[in-house]
């Protein structure tokens, strides 16, 4: 069974778990997180089953029956709570994004390392089938936004969360003197689009030789445009 490295709606944000509990902080160390590690109630059990079914079967082959096979309770509960596959998938995505937002802390200890670890995470070739499977599912779901307003609304929100996170890291760097003064929102937007583009390409092509050079060039660009001279 596949285990997602991050929630499907937000696949490139690095998170780490504090030793005091389940709360995640903005940190340069990526980790595997499962928003359904602990579930409470029928609704969360259904969403967890949806998450597992998506990871294992992908969007195209997903049906309510397949989700029901993952549920340890009667499949009739799914039909009682949800009218169709897309309503259930969107509820699952929203739940995971809500979870992610709730775990984000405001502290950024090392803004430069945080950005560079994020770039490294996105530019590191996938070396496991489960992880690649999760990435393919994300692409499948994202594609639904081209013709489905509900998916488009979700991914608009998801992108905003990622962009805002990047902006908060940049602003922390400006405040600490690690980064030069700049329009943090514009820089975050460019980084968001660039990292997502890298993610989509690495998930949908067979070659990975371009990834290290892309990572190096992106970091070099930050050194010339964002990093303060004494930290570059």
Automatic annotation (TrEMBL):
Residues 40-100 form the HTH tetR-type domain. This is TetR family transcriptional regulator. PANTHER family: HTH-TYPE TRANSCRIPTIONAL REGULATOR BETI (PTHR30055:SF234), HTH-TYPE TRANSCRIPTIONAL REGULATOR RUTR (PTHR30055). It comes from Natrialba magadii (strain ATCC 43099 / DSM 3394 / CCM 3739 / CIP 104546 / IAM 13178 / JCM 8861 / NBRC 102185 / NCIMB 2190 / MS3) (Natronobacterium magadii). Residues 63-82 bind DNA. The lineage of its organism: Archaea, Methanobacteriati, Methanobacteriota, Stenosarchaea group, Halobacteria. SUPFAM superfamilies: Homeodomain-like, Tetracyclin repressor-like, C-terminal domain. Keywords: DNA-binding, Repressor, Transcription, Transcription regulation. PROSITE patterns: HTH_TETR_2.
